[in-house]
Amino acid sequence: xxxxxxxxxxxxxxxxxxxxxxxxxxxxxxxxxxxxxxxxxxxxxxxxxxxxxxxxxxxxxxxxxxxxxxxxxxxxxxxxxxxxxxxxxxxxxxxxxxxxxxxxxxxxxxxxxxxxxxxxxxxxxxxxxxxxxxxxxxxxxxxxxxxxxxxxxxxxxxxxxxxxxxxxxxxxxxxxxxxxxxxxxxxxxxxxxxxxxxxxxxxxxxxxxxxxxxxxxxxxxxxxxxxxxxxxxxxxxxxxxxxxxxxxxxxxxxxxxxxxxx
Length: 262
Ligand SMILES: Nc1ncnc2c1ncn2[C@@H]1O[C@H](COP(=O)(O)OP(=O)(O)OP(=O)(O)O)[C@@H](O)[C@H]1O
Hints:
Blueprint: E1 9-18, E2 24-33, E3 39-42, H1 49-56, E4 66-75, E5 78-79, H2 85-92, E6 95-98, H3 112-123, H4 129-142, H5 159-171, E7 177-181, H6 192-202, E8 207-211, H7 215-221, E9 224-229, E10 232-237, H8 239-244, H9 249-258
Parallel strand pairs: 3-8, 3-9, 6-7, 7-8
Antiparallel strand pairs: 1-2, 1-4, 4-5, 9-10
Helix pairs in contact: 3-4, 3-5, 4-5
Adenosine-5'-triphosphate binds near residues 47, 51 and 64.
């Protein structure tokens, strides 16, 4: 596979279940994310946000990822159903995935520089160190982490810093598709807007799908929102249009959280 020619993530009527289960946790979800048009996914806990994002990020049932039971998901022009092992590995080089709680799985004794560079050297152990350093610096900058952190060990970092290291690692290969699950969980409220703003900038040049917690976070990233409730879409469109005309009690509850108290 050469460079992907399609820039978009296309989800069409997708239904998903977890490995070893036939119970659908995502049903009939459709949207398109492309450069300049990110998609944020909102929904209460257990709504299916991570399940959906894991499927888009090419996780397979073998790795405890979800299974597509209906519809289709195409990432950068490749249908994920029936994607062979080698084609999947090649496509993964163009897909950045910052998993929910990915920061908790970082190796504590590694340095920030080594963690962020790891996708580069996993692909090519002989990759030029200087060039890798430039990519790592760019990724740290995108998540607003200072270069002075490069030699710090993961165990020395706060939860919010680890979260940003995890996001930087997902960015280091300059992915054409970026899947980000709960990007500011655990972040200091002073830093969070900066990270969301960084995502908005990244979304100008790549397809971004981000699961977020609040309408405010969705607004900060921009694009359109898909609201999930029990695995089904209960609202889709620009977040402010959804909140202005809620068609489901959950969307109404989101709108209420934003109204100033009387
Ligand atoms: N590995 C798994 N095996 C079976 N069921 C799972 C698995 N992971 C999640 N689920 C179930 O799938 C449903 C959707 O979970 P998911 O994690 O996608 O929701 P979410 O919207 O991301 O929630 P949260 O906001 O809490 O992260 C839930 O009912 C959850 O219990």
